[in-house]
Amino acid sequence: MKLIVKKSRIHGKGLFAAEDIPWGVKIIEYKGEVIPDEIALARIAEGSDCIFELGKNANIDGAVNGNEARYANHDRREPNCFVLRDEGRIWLVAGIEGIAKGEELTFDYGSTFYEL
Q1: Which residues lie across from 99 on neighbouring strands?
Q2: Which residues pair with 3 in a beta bridge?
Q3: Residue 19 half-sphere exposure, CB side, CA atoms within 13 Å?
Q4: Among candidates 28, 34, 98, which has minimal Cα distance to 68?
Q5: pLDDT in tens, 31-65
Q6: Is 12 helix (H, G, I), strand (E, B) or coil?
Q7: Are 29 and 60 contacting, i.e. CB atoms less than 8 angstroms apart?
Q8: How far apart are the first and last CA of the chain?
C-alpha cells in the first residue's frame, strides 16, 4: 500500500492513505524492536508512545527500528483500521468501510491506553 506520513489533525504526525484501500486489506505491519514487559514499562515511564503489546512478555517498540505504522493515530469513535495479531506479527487492517485516498489511518488504542 502507498502511505504518506504528514502532519495530523489528531496528534503530531499521522499516517495517510496515498490510494484507496479496500476493507479487509492488511495495510502495514507494525515493526520495531521486540522487548519484554520490564523494558517496555521503563520506556513508557520515560515517555515512549510507540510501544505495542505483541503477546505475553513481548512488546514492539516502533521507535526503535520501526516503520511508518507507528504514525497511525488513535480514534475511539470512528477508527478506519483494526489490529490483527497473526503468527507473532501485528498488522493494521482496513476496516469495513475501507479507506479513501487522503484519509488518515486510525485505530482504537484500547481502554488500557486511553480510559473510557
Answers
A1: 21
A2: 17
A3: 7
A4: 28
A5: 999 999 999 999 999 999 899 999 999 999 999 99
A6: coil
A7: no
A8: 32
